[in-house]
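Anyone up for a design puzzle?
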């Protein structure tokens, strides 16, 4: 039987591991979809339902291969919003979303996850010289995704659990407002983002508390399509992100979960999971 001092020492080791991961990747751009799950193993033929809210800020990239591809209507015609051709345009995205997710473990193997959510207040920001430009959505967007998790080291009383999580997430938003300086114009731009992510998740349970954390690696494709010209531009980038989370089992089978990614990304998710 472990003493309280031994458990405290193991808890410090766990957080040291996560802190090292954060330090290694702090110098890169930090992104990634939330897991909102520890490395705990569900029983065979069981499932869980999760509801959560998330706030995310990231830096999507598109390559401006065609200067005339993306335009906004102005009095007397239309105007392009990107000036330099064949350059990568780094933007900052900001949005909040309400998401529902279902996790299944039909047998003694993988966990399967399906999620869908409503995006609110999607915004893209980029600079042109000394001017800050913004593309905003005044309507709701959509995100959906699928994932699979393999617990290659199940969690026990004396050891931490470890899992590999693979997922795909698509984000869709209609950007219908363009702001530049004091000018506001209508826009008709569809923004799409496809993210393929892999994550290492480590967790350790102490009574009703289960801290978890690890590292996420993602390949992201971003695309903008103009509703008027029907032209599109797109770009890709790779992302690395440490993350930390905490699950509290308030009642048997009912847990409150909080998860965050830090440094270059400001991402925070919180919600509730019910197991059946």
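Challenge accepted. My sequence:
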């Amino acid at each position: 039987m472990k003493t309280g001092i031994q458990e405290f020492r193991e808890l410090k080791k766990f957080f040291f591991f996560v802190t090292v991961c954060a330090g290694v990747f702090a110098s890169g751009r930090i992104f990634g979809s939330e897991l909102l799950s520890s490395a705990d193993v569900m029983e065979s033929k069981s499932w869980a339902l999760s509801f959560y809210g998330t706030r995310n800020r990231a830096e999507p990239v598109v390559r401006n291969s065609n200067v005339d591809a993306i335009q906004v209507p102005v009095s007397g015609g239309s105007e392009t919003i990107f000036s330099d051709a064949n350059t990568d345009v780094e933007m900052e995205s900001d949005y909040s979303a309400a998401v529902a997710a279902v996790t299944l473990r039909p047998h003694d193997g993988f966990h399967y996850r399906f999620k869908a959510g409503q995006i609110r207040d999607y915004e893209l920001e980029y600079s042109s010289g000394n001017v800050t430009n913004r593309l905003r959505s005044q309507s709701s967007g959509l995100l959906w995704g699928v994932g699979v998790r393999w617990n290659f080291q199940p969690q026990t009383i004396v050891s931490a659990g470890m899992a590999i999580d693979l997922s795909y997430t698509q984000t869709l938003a209609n950007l219908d407002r363009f702001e530049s300086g004091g000018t506001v114009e209508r826009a008709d731009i569809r923004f799409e983002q496809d993210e393929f992510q892999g994550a290492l998740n480590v967790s350790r349970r102490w009574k009703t508390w289960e801290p978890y954390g690890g590292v996420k690696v993602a390949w992201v494709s971003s695309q903008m399509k103009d509703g008027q010209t029907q032209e599109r531009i797109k770009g890709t980038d790779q992302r690395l992100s440490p993350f930390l989370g905490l699950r509290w089992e308030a009642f048997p089978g009912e847990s409150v979960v909080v998860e965050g990614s830090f440094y270059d990304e400001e991402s925070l998710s919180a919600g509730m999971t019910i197991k059946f």
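A detail worth pointing out: Helices lie at 4-25.
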